[in-house]
Amino acid sequence: MITTDILIIGAGPTGLFTVFEAGLLKLKCHLIDALPQQGGQCTELYPKKPIYDIPAYPEILAGDLTDKLMEQCKQFEPGFTLGERAETIEKQEDGTFIVTTNKGTKHQAPVVAIAGGLGSFEPRKPLIHNITDFEDKGVEYMIKEPEIYRGKKVVIAGGGDSALDWSIFLSDIAESVTLIHRRNEFRGHLDSVEKVQELKNSGKINLITPAEVTGIVGDDKVEAIVVKQAQHIEKEFEVECDHFIPLFGLSPKLGPIANWGLEIEKNAIKVNNALDYQTNIPGIYAIGDVNTYPGKLKLILCGFHEATLMCQSAYQIINPGKRYVLKYTTVAGVNGFDGTRKEAPKAVVKAID
Amino acid sequence: MDSADINITIIDREGVKHQIEAPTDMAMNLMEVVRSYELAPEGTIGICGGMAMCASCQCYVLSDTELPEMQDDEEAMLSEAFYVKDNSRLGCQIQMTPEMEGLEVELAPES
Asked: Which of A104, A155, A277, B90 could link A178 by a cystine bridge, Cβ 3.0 to 4.6 Å?
């Protein structure tokens, strides 16, 4: 069981900044995110896009913002459960919550802060009628353990960076790699496209374009996929394989959080914005893009503000009756949990004769 | 109706036809018009914010209105999206202009 003071669901900008604000109050944080890396939408959707409305940064790339937030919060040693989706929540008799992920990892905390942005990112599934029958039986939407593909016949579908990168990577491991894309052009880094071209020329990747996968064949597990190539409208053919990996990006869904008994309005969690961004369940907060209240603006900087106020309120839940006075970091400095200390240099005091 | 507004028709994902007035002087694109009129649930359209990176604002153009030519980003995104038809466009890439008076589109299914 992972225990912490504030359990944050979502490791996007708001979740990461919560770690810092909580750290100033000597509260420890642990974050859960369905994505395999921190940064949420910023790293998943547009890491190379500039953002212009972060205070003090006239321009910053979304990926760089994530890096900066990680750098800022690392002194407070946050824990991470990545690549797992928060599935269930149970309130305990002592008032704490236990949140369990889809992989069964359990976390316990007196305060839960949902900073889930648009929700958990779920893989976009291609429109193949029997695809769900083969999930975990040869159909995988994300690659987590590349070693399972060693010596296997793999088919990847998609035309973006993930499809290109994994085709390149697995061409060294798998017995065969077939890449199928609806167009001849690929939407990815030039280097990756050129590398795939090279591997195709040397026979290490089978490229089928423009084409689509229309069916999956097999009894207990994937044995082949059915491909329809654009030039042959009437003609479909099978490609033998052990694994079919469709990589068509991710789509955000509120997911299991929607069943936690929280008050939901227009796909977002209603909170008490006049006070502390708490939901209708005491001890559970919602901050950032995932919440809603009159006048809500879905902006990163609003998430930062909400995180700050939420931490002050959480402090009172975790330390009932204990008084806390807001201190400026310019005065109090920052005491990292890792033993580091940052403070403004003291003025030199010297007598003048 | 403001002189800078145009009349357009949007068929939502439930098949309901909405005849609305879209401003052309607010630098709005079609996806933003759909959001401002709340014709699709929050969180199901314009997820990437309008960068042609998610295809959640895909729509089918039903009228013969002349639209801006498709750029590489939009074409590439549509090559990966689902439910794509010959008349598919991304709403976020269509800036509203007075020339689009009479535009009729249907929102593609959520994917």
From this structure: A155
